[in-house]
Design goal:
GO molecular function, one term: aldehyde-lyase activity
Largest sheet: 6 strands, mixed
CATH class of the largest domain: Alpha Beta
Shape: elongated
Keywords: Lyase, Thiamine pyrophosphate
Number of domains: 3
Distance between the termini: 84 Å
Family: Belongs to the XFP family.
InterPro entries: THDP-binding (IPR029061), Transketo_C/PFOR_II (IPR009014), Xul5P/Fru6P_PKetolase (IPR005593), Xul5P/Fru6P_PKetolase_C (IPR018969), Xul5P/Fru6P_PKetolase_CS (IPR019790), Xul5P/Fru6P_PKetolase_N (IPR018970), Xul5P/Fru6P_PKetolase_ThDP_BS (IPR019789)
Pfam families: XFP, XFP_C, XFP_N
Length: 824
């Protein structure tokens, strides 16, 4: 056989595994089941009325707008139905992940035939009336989408954006030792970067503690309008590709249905027995070795079972079968006849009875109860979710004897809390991240659970490698795969946290976007139980990426998250260590959110003892009286901040202002919960206007130092009273290999720029502030020059703390004319 012939999907079955597990009668049953399933998949796309063609097909029976994708459905159906036999034979715990884009017809047809769909949606019963509604509401307003959306029973993976089926599947089987995720990978999907990296997930699967993923790469040859790469490379090259990934590929290829039934049945059974053998050996011996897990390459025609040609154009086995195969049956009578003949070729008159009930054999071919793959509780993970056992976060409090007067490592301290969360939840909590756990100062977690590693070990790994087969930390330098693992883990009923450098979290912008849409839609689906929140910890923040340069300076992930539905997203920027503890405790306990926490990993000033931190985080935003001078007065200025580095510079600016103008009435406001800024009609966390005015007034200049891009605050606050008075400083896309101070100066977020801005905006200072303004500008130039010449910021600035004695001392000295002389 030539290379070209070997990669075509036509002819009798060609398979790696030989065998004939099915009897002649079983083949007949499976062929009928296959026909009925393909009829359902095609009917969903076209039929609004006359669901079983009990009268001649008319254009009035068709949907006015034809939507859906048929091309991958037959291959998915074929795989699903043959796995049902193995679930029954071996009492398997399994569910199906539909990776091909718009692959829902394949999964929905199975849910309907096994009875789950009618149990969930009782008006879509297994009779003529129910089938008519089942067809009508596919890709129809108020119905189910053409992806495996949250409305689809048995789905944790929508396939709206391609590339995540394998990583989601692996996430679901970690710590789920009896589960098999049968995962259909579209050959178009297989061309994406996330899917390519996710094949390496097999290096992290522990056969003792985890379940298994059985991938089925579906080579149907075409995307929307192009051949797929993996379908057009020689057989040996394809085999070597997956051998190189560490899998054992088994091939099933062809389109002659009877021989394909035997080949697929034999191959799937071989894979299941191999998985069970690997797990049994590891669990009996206690040795967590990495086997060569099985996977299947299924090569079948796109739009299998459809007509080979329509007019003079190829259809089945070609890209025209990808979406709606016959596009104009409402307008073209000949095409309407062809569609009717195609639908009738599946023999609906024989396979459904006079009342529209499917053949009773089909239900007997399916498993029962929760063993049906679309009824498996793992695909409705909130049903399985157990609350985390949590240590008391206040026990990890940092001592703050003087607000703004002591420094500590907030992240390293929080890591001890995270370590104990992990230790108390060793079977349902994992930490995920792209090779940055140690760098992000979270290394304390290794005391509870090391990094999962199923690869080879070197002697030097014992010296700080923190590697173990039964670890709890998942690290791989692919943000896509780590995020996919976490999503699969959470969606199947567990808890987790992803930590990442802030600048590179953009790699998974669209993944988080998809997850936000998923959990928002789940809120509208009554039978979906709430899952644990997806928690993302961002560190190595923009203001401390001075040494890495401009490429590492981007805080814009917050803009991406803020665009999502207020029902499902939260953003927190704790200013110090005790606030970080309070926020993390809250996020880990929450459900059905995407929580983003931004906190730097370096040492920082500490402001609030634990009691004050809990109060501040509970409010989400508030006045800090220990740094304010306006008690009982109308403020001259509101100095606001959001973010740990931003808060530090804001307070240093207040100190500078009070050195020059001790009589100033300054109100210091700090924001932890970013969505406190937004109007309450747009987000449930938003302050009322009365609360807003109590903090910011409606007639006072506000200098707001913000962690991210400044226009984000303007966007959130544009409806607020006095919005015209808000002047935001933040990252302006100015960066280089700078010191922290130089980077802040470039973006006007440093203490000098903030103090100068305040002077310019306080009306009564006017010319009175000119001398101070010049002095501050001179000081800024001196500091910047010193940083440029020495490569380090001046210690007098980096070591700045809030003055000993605080504001009372300073105000009292000012009243007595004894303010200390300023020194450089």
């Amino acid at each position: 056989m030539s290379d070209v012939e070997s990669i075509k999907a036509f002819g009798p079955a060609r398979s790696t595994v030989q065998g004939a597990p099915l009897s002649a009668e079983e083949i007949k049953d499976y062929n009928d089941y296959f026909k009925a399933s393909c009829y359902l998949a095609l009917g969903m796309i076209y039929l609004k009325e006359n669901p079983l063609l009990r009268e001649p097909l008319k254009k009035e029976h068709l949907k006015a707008r034809l939507l859906g994708h048929f091309g991958s459905a037959p291959g998915q159906i074929f795989t699903y139905m043959h796995f049902n036999r193995l679930i029954k034979k071996y009492d398997l715990d399994a569910y199906f992940v539909s990776g091909p884009g718009h692959g829902a017809p394949g999964l929905l047809s199975q849910s309907y035939l096994e009875g789950v769909y009618s149990e969930v949606y009782t008006n879509k019963s297994q009779d003529g009336e129910g089938l008519q509604k089942f067809f009508k509401y596919f890709s129809f307003p108020g119905g189910t989408g053409s992806h495996a959306t949250p409305e689809t029973p048995g789905s944790i993976h929508e396939g709206g954006e391609l590339g995540y089926s394998i990583s989601h599947a692996f996430g679901s089987v970690f710590d789920n030792p009896n589960l098999i995720a049968l995962t259909m990978v579209g050959d178009g999907e297989a061309e994406t970067g996330p899917l390519a990296t996710s094949w390496h997930s097999n290096k992290f699967l522990n056969p003792i503690t985890d379940g298994a993923v059985l991938p089925v790469l579906h080579l149907n040859g075409y995307k929307i309008n192009n051949p797929t790469i993996l379908a057009r490379i020689p057989h040996k090259e394809l085999e070597n590709l997956f051998l190189g990934y560490g899998w054992q590929p088994y091939f099933v290829e062809g389109d002659e249905v009877e021989s394909m039934h035997q080949a697929m049945a034999a191959t799937l059974e071989h894979c299941v027995r191999e998985i069970q053998s690997f797990q049994r050996k590891a669990r009996t011996s206690g040795q967590a070795v990495r086997p060569r897990w099985p996977m299947i390459v299924l090569r079948s025609p796109k739009g299998w079972t459809g007509p080979r040609k329509v007019d003079d154009n190829y259809l089945a086995g070609f890209w025209r079968a990808h979406q709606v195969p016959i596009t104009d049956p409402q307008k073209n009578p000949e095409h309407l006849k062809l569609l009717e003949a195609w639908l009738r070729s599946y023999e609906p008159d024989r396979l459904w009875d006079s009342e529209g009930r499917p053949d009773a054999r089909f239900r007997r071919m399916c498993p029962d109860g929760n063993s049906r793959m679309t009824a498996n509780p793992v695909a409705n993970g909130g049903l399985l979710k157990k609350p985390l056992r949590m240590p008391q976060f206040t026990d990890y409090a940092l001592a703050v004897e003087r607000s703004g007067g002591v420094k500590a490592a907030s992240m390293s301290n929080m890591a001890q809390f995270l370590r104990d969360v992990m230790a108390m939840n060793m079977h349902n909590f994992r930490l995920f991240g792209p090779d940055e756990t140690e760098s992000n100062k979270l290394g304390a977690v290794y005391e509870a659970g090391k990094k999962v590693w199923m690869g080879e070990y070197f002697e030097e790994d014992a010296n700080g490698g923190n590697l173990a087969p039964a670890g709890r930390v998942m690290e791989m330098l692919s943000e896509h795969t780590c995020e996919g693992w976490l999503e699969g883990y959470v969606l199947s009923g567990r808890h987790g946290l992803l930590n990442s450098y802030e600048p590179f979290i953009h790699v998974i912008d669209s993944m988080v976007n998809q997850h936000c849409k998923w959990i928002e839609k789940c809120l509208e689906v009554g039978w979906r139980a709430q899952v644990a929140s997806l928690n993302i910890l961002l560190t190595a923040v923009v203001w401390r990426q001075d040494h890495n340069g401009f490429t590492h300076q981007d805080p814009g992930f917050l803009d991406v998250v803020a665009n999502k539905s207020p029902k499902v997203v939260r953003i927190y920027l704790p200013p110090d260590g005790n606030c970080l503890l309070s926020v993390m405790d809250h996020c880990l306990r929450s459900a059905n959110y995407v929580n983003v926490v931004v906190a730097d990993k370096q040492e920082h000033l500490q402001y609030l003892d634990m009691d004050a931190a809990v109060q501040h985080c509970t409010k989400g935003i508030g006045i800090w009286p220990q740094f304010s001078t306006d008690a009982g007065y109308d403020p001259d200025l509101v100095m606001a901040s959001c973010g740990d580095v931003s808060t530090h510079e804001s307070l240093a600016a207040v100190d500078l202002l009070l050195q020059h103008f001790p009589e100033l009435k300054i109100r210091v406001v700090n924001c932890v919960d970013l969505f406190k800024l937004i109007h309450p009609i747009d987000h449930p966390h938003g302050l009322s206007d009365r609360e807003w005015i109590a903090l910011f007034t409606d007639d006072t200049p506000v200098v707001f130092n913000f962690h991210s891009y400044p226009w984000m605050v303007h966007r959130l606050t544009y409806k607020r009273p006095g919005a015209r008075n808000i002047h935001v400083r933040g990252y302006k896309e100015k960066g280089n290999i700078d010191t922290p101070l130089e980077l802040a100066i470039r973006n006007q977020t440093d203490r000098f720029s903030l103090a100068i801005d305040a002077i310019d905006r306080i009306p009564h200072l006017k010319n009175k502030g000119s001398a101070a303004r010049q002095t501050l500008l001179n000081d800024q130039i001196v500091a910047r020059t010193e940083a440029f010449e020495t490569g380090m910021d001046p210690p007098r600035l980096t070591e700045w703390v809030w003055p000993e004695g605080g504001l009372l001392s300073k105000i009292s000295q000012a009243a007595e004319g004894k303010m200390p002389v300023r020194t450089k």
